[in-house]
Amino acid sequence: MSVFVLALDQGTTSSRALLFDREGQVFAEDHCEFPQHFREPGWVEHDPLEIWESQLRAARGVLEKTGTPASDIAAVGITNQRETAVVWDRASGEPIHPAIVWQSRQTMDICDGLRARGLEDEVRSRTGLVIDSYFSATKIRFILDRVPGAQARAEAGELCFGTVDTWLMYKLSEGRVHVTEYSNASRTMLYNIHTLEWDDFLLTALDIPRAMLPEVLDSSGVFGVVTKNWFGAEIPIAGVAGDQQASLFGQGCFETGMIKNTYGTGCFLLANTGPTPFVSDSGLLTTLAWGIEGRVEYALEGSVFSAGATVQWLRDGLRLIDDAAESETASRAVSDTGGVYLVPAFAGLGAPYWDERARGTLVGLTRGTTREHIVRAGLESIAYGSRDVVDCMVKDAGLSLDSLRVDGGACQNDFLMQFQADLLGVAIERPAMLEVTALGAAALAGLGVGYWSGLAEIAQSRGAVKTFEPTFSEAERNALYSEWQRAVERSRDWVS
Ligand code: ADP
After folding, report:
1. Cα 163 to middle of ligand 1, angstroms
2. Which atom of ligand 1 has the smallest separation from the CA of 13?
3. pLDDT, tens digit, for every residue of 210-223?
4. Is the predicted pLDDT of residue 1 greater than 80, yes or no?
5. pLDDT for 391-425, tens place per residue?
6. 483 burial class (0-12, 13-18, 19+ CB within 10 angstroms)?
7. What is the pLDDT of residue 339?
8. Distance from the CA of 110 to the center of ligand 1, in angstroms?
9. What's the pLDDT at 454?
10. Closest residue to atom 2 of ligand 1, CA basis
């Protein structure tokens, strides 16, 4: 009987490999960083071969250091940086251009062109997304425009496009499979999330040949086989999801209305909305969460642009703290912010305000304001920004929230978690095992080969959870939140 599931967590700055045991615990981990390439201002690219080699090294590393033979691995699961686009030669496997990373702004002009053609509503109604250079479609267009002869080769079926999951599966199977799954497909801005097909209208609008697109499969189930060449024995690849959807799955948010928040550099919130794709009035994205046994589930997605980044700014910009953890002790040294609000609109505001001319604002200062008040206002701003998004989700999808599941670096801050619970009026659940994104990929893979029996067993594998119960009255909570909204108003429409 197989002992482990191997999760490959291919992120923006590093590739990781984790072995999960049957209890859903991490047995061992290895990782490998790889270079970022900035050929022009605003561009972010990766070498697809460096992505692949770093991922291979991490996977071999975790097997070697634990002395685990490939025959002990029940399945491989993959979770990946989303939206990043790779185009390669189908026969040779050679990339024809660097991978264009999700963050890269190099296709802003192409996006402007799509907007000028009035395609915004078409994109939203078909893909659930807004026109933005984050998503893969305009990155593919950019590559086909830049590489001589690429358009004709793509039309002749000689080129493959893939998000990073697709690229890794192509390499792991030595070119035998060209496949993806629902969560990754739904981030390309080419996939119709209602008909569950590549969208002919959008393919035509962007002149992207269908022949270069991967086949879209369930997120759980066998996609292909890792050839013997890589780890010494064949292993099925049996679960795949983009990083945020994998985290939703790893958090056990299997039911409609369950929401997770990942507190990283920014916050990423996803709400499972079950079989219904809700259209948001607040500018949240509608996306596919996953597909299992032919049934897809949808999610609403929103983000807070500056979360952990605000803590970094308190540390590196203002030098008010020496390290991120000190934000907690400083905040606890005062009983409140003394009426200070920090709106970290460093790069504008997202949902529900969508104001790119907003800028960071510190209001309510008096002669009594101290460093601790400002640090606390910074931490609290993360919770306020998250409440902005949660309120949109609840309103847009008519959800009733009864708890929020959390992960990401800044969720280790107990003060922040308690304030979040107080401000939302619901319990915050933080798992002891914080590798939920990798667990999500492992869980989809384990489910795909019968290593785990079903969702109930996977939900158990989440293990111990620390719960932060709300302590504020509704009146207290709403009073604070309406002050926040007043502060946000002060930050808006600043840059002329
Ligand atoms: P990412 O995946 O976006 O790089 P991580 O999930 O690794 O982010 O989290 C790192 C972020 O969390 C950093 O921005 C850091 O400032 C913040 N962070 C880490 N520990 C704490 C803490 N104890 N309190 C507040 N913020 C923290």
Report:
1. 26
2. 4
3. 999 999 999 999 99
4. no
5. 999 999 999 888 999 999 999 999 999 999 999 99
6. middle
7. 96
8. 33
9. 85
10. 264
Q: Express each pLDDT in 323-363 by its tens digit.
A: 999 999 999 999 999 999 999 999 888 888 888 889 999 99
Kindly report, residue by residue over 441-495, the tens digit of the pLDDT.
Answer: 999 999 999 999 888 888 877 777 899 999 999 999 999 999 999 999 999 999 8
Place of tokens 């203002």: 318
As a whole number, mean pLDDT of residues 158-166 equals 98
Domains and CATH numbers, the chain: 4-244 (3.30.420.40)
Please state, in angstroms and rounded to a whole number, the distance separating the CA atoms of residues 110 and 174.
33
Place of tokens 């929103």: 302
Ligand 1 in reach of 309 Cβ (< 6 A): yes
Ligand 1 pocket mutation, candidates 311, 327, 342, 415, criterion most atoms within 8 A of CB? 311
